[in-house]
Each structure stands twice: as structure tokens, then as C-alpha cells.
Amino acid sequence: MIETIKNIVKKWKEGTEYLNYGRDIISSWAVQYIKDKHIYQKQKEFVIFDHGCGHGDDLELIKNNVQEDPELKNVVLHLYGIENYAPFVEECKAKGIEVFSIDLEKEVYPLEDQSVDIIITNQVMEHTKEIFWIMEQFTRLLKPEGILIIGVPNLASLHNRILLLLGEQPTAQQSLGPHVRGFTLPDLKRFVEVQGFFEFLERKGSNFYPFPPSISKILANLFPSLAWGLFAKFRRTNKQGSFLDYLKENFLETPYYGSPQNPANTNRKIKNFSNKRKIK
After folding, report:
1. What is the pLDDT of residues 190-210, one digit of tens each?
2. pTM (2 decimals)?
3. How many domains does the structure of the chain reveal?
4. What CATH code is carried by the domain that includes residue 156?
5. pLDDT class of 138 with cuts at 50, 70, 90
6. What is the secondary structure of the chain as a DSSP string?
7. Does residue 271 lie in a domain region?
8. Does 120 fall in a domain?
């Protein structure tokens, strides 16, 4: 009976999967940040870093929307991303994105401290174990007042709640699946804000299983806490220091990378791109 229901629901939601990525949400947040900085603070150049850029779709959409905005005609974007799959790397390069093929869970991200205006991590965090190391790098890279945009599957979505009620595993985190972490907004906020390096600004939802696209968009806007996708925007504060201090101050039995049980190698040479492009 449950399998029959699941198959019916799966059929209903076909064609909505593109909404899971919330690309319009990410682009609107990024472009608005750029516009505010450009208009009110006269900033002309922006560095955007995509933490797992895939085909480069998020960065490309932001670039296109900036280029189409007459108020941003003098803005210059410098686009960077992490990607290891060779065909995707070539796609990103063709779109003007400089790609770093590194282990994002253990290697130092090759950009200078406080050199990035916007960091995007879209449908990446749920696949990772070493989130303390990742947050250490985000903390280091972002300028004060820079923004961090996180997109993850919503463990508290309507369909996941129904599955749990039926005694089934939520789709956001299954053993026969690629996700190793599940996120709700309260949990994500507690984690990102714990050391005081970030403050939460806004959340939005995208897609709404098992409804078709036109209805999904409406429901996700009205009830973001029940939407398939959880998208959250955070601002980097002026606090200095290391996010990894949490691991030093709080013993966790699992030896996360950067903990006293598993010290991180932070003595890696950081690529200096400021000489190549005069970032202001």
C-alpha cells in the first residue's frame, strides 16, 4: 500500500525537480546584494565563490542577471568555484568561471582571507561530513558584511513529515542515497551562528512535493518551512578568529577534521589572485 502511494506521488512530482535548486532565489539574493553595494557604496568589482559549482548554473544566472540590469552596467564579476568532475570543469571554464579541483572537506580553499563578497553552497552541505572545516573556510574567505547563501533539502518538508508519520525514511536522508546530513532551519541557524561569525538574514523555500510546478511555487512562497528546499541567507559579522575553535572548546567523540583528535593542515599556500585582478 505504502509503495503504491509512493509511486503515485513520485508520478505527480515529475517535472518539478528543477525547482529543488532554487536558482531564482539564489540569483535574486546575490544580485540585490551587488546592487545595494554598488549603488550605496560605489563598489564596482565583486568576487563570487560557488562551493561546488557543478555546471556553473548558479554563477551563470547571476552573471546574466547582472549584465541585463542597467543599474549594474559598470559592475565586474570575478567568478570562482570548486568542482572535480572533468566535464563540469570544462563547462564552467567555458562560462568564465575559474575552477579549483580540490577536496572541499579537507583542503584550504585557494583564495585570500576576506577576499570574497558572496559564497554560494547549493545542494552540497547535505553530502558532506566535515562541515566544521567547511565553515572555517567560509569564515576565513568572506569579507565582513559579505553574504553566505546556503541551499539544502529541507528535512522538515511536508512530504518528509508525512513519510516519518508513516514510519518511512525521509527522502532528505536515506541510507540508499547520497545524503549524509539532514537540515531544518533551526538546526542550520544554530550551527552557522554558533561562534558569532554569521547572523541569519532570511529564509525561502523552493518546490513543494508532490504538487506540479505552478502550485509548488505558490505553496513554497506561502509555507517555506514545509517546502522541499531550504534556502537561507547569512551575513558575515566583523568577528575575527576561527570557526574551528568550537571543536577545541567542545569535545565531540567523532574526530572531525580540525579537531584536537584530527588536526587540520592549515599551513597550505593560499593562491594570491589579487595581483592578477585588482579587486577593490
Report:
1. 999 999 999 999 999 999 998
2. 0.93
3. 1
4. 3.40.50.150
5. very high
6. -HHHHHHHHHHHHTT-GGGGG-HHHHHHHHHHHHHHHHHHH---EEEEEETT-TTSHHHHHHHHHHHH-GGGTT-EEEEEEE---HHHHHHHHHTT-EEE-S-TTTSPPSS-TT-EEEEEEES-GGG-S-HHHHHHHHHHHEEEEEEEEEEEEBTTSHHHHHHHHTTPPPTTS-TTSS----B-HHHHHHHHHTTSSEEEEEEEEE--TTS-HHHHHHHHHH-GGGSSEEEEEEEE-S--S-TTHHHHHS--SS--TTBTTB-----PPPP--TTTS---
7. no
8. yes
